[in-house]
Amino acid sequence: MKTKNTYFILVAVILFIAGCIPSLHPIYHDEDRIEVPEIVGKWLDDSKNIWEFQKVQDEPSYILTYIDQGKLNDNIPSNDSANILVNIIKLGGTYIMDFYPNENQHLENLNDFLQIHLLGVHTFGKLEIKDGKPSVFMMDREWIEKLFDENKIRIKHEVIDGDAVLTASTDDLQKFFTKYVNDKDAFLDPDILTPYETK
């Protein structure tokens, strides 16, 4: 049972938003990363989950603390919170976010043998800023898997336990996203973030 619970915690950290498609490689080279200061702060999405972005010192990167509001206790993150490293680039005139598991206490508490068998993956989303508020559109897993099934795209991937995992290089990922970044079918409905207000 402990191993099963650990698995679900791991999934919550890596694929913290339903529908994401994982990638073995990032969508950015270090020199591609840019700063988007508008995202810094504490936000709520429509489901009342908390998104808190903090700038990484001396790096064009951010740490996202993602918390299930329903499991928040006295403003202290529960074990269901996830710390995500976020890097942002611009493709086709649009911000693209790369999410990757950062240091997470739940993972650090796993035994060493299990830790060495865990695979960190990247997930991607589109970022829009409107009236000072971020909106995050995660890539739609069903959309891309349908294209794979119909042989309409050729980006490198593997199917593991019935789910696609992107194995394409960073350069190929960038070409792919540049082509589809404005395709509305490629992304889920956005998480529209509003400022978090304490009571």
Give the tags.
31% strand, 21% helix, alpha+beta, 199 residues, two-stranded antiparallel sheet
Structure description:
The protein has one domain (2-195). Strand 8 and strand 9 (163-166) form a beta hairpin. By secondary structure, the chain is an alpha+beta fold. The termini are far apart. The chain has helices spanning 2-14, 105-108, 112-115, 141-149, 170-180, and strands spanning 41-44, 50-55, 61-67, 82-91, 94-101, 123-130, 133-138, 157-160, 163-166, 191-192, 194-195. It contains 5 helices and 11 strands; from the N terminus they run H-E-E-E-E-E-H-H-E-E-H-E-E-H-E-E. The chain has a 9-stranded antiparallel sheet with strand order 10-7-6-5-4-3-2-1-11. Strands 8-9 form a two-stranded antiparallel sheet. The radius of gyration is 17 Å and the shape is globular. Residues 1-17 have low confidence and may be disordered.
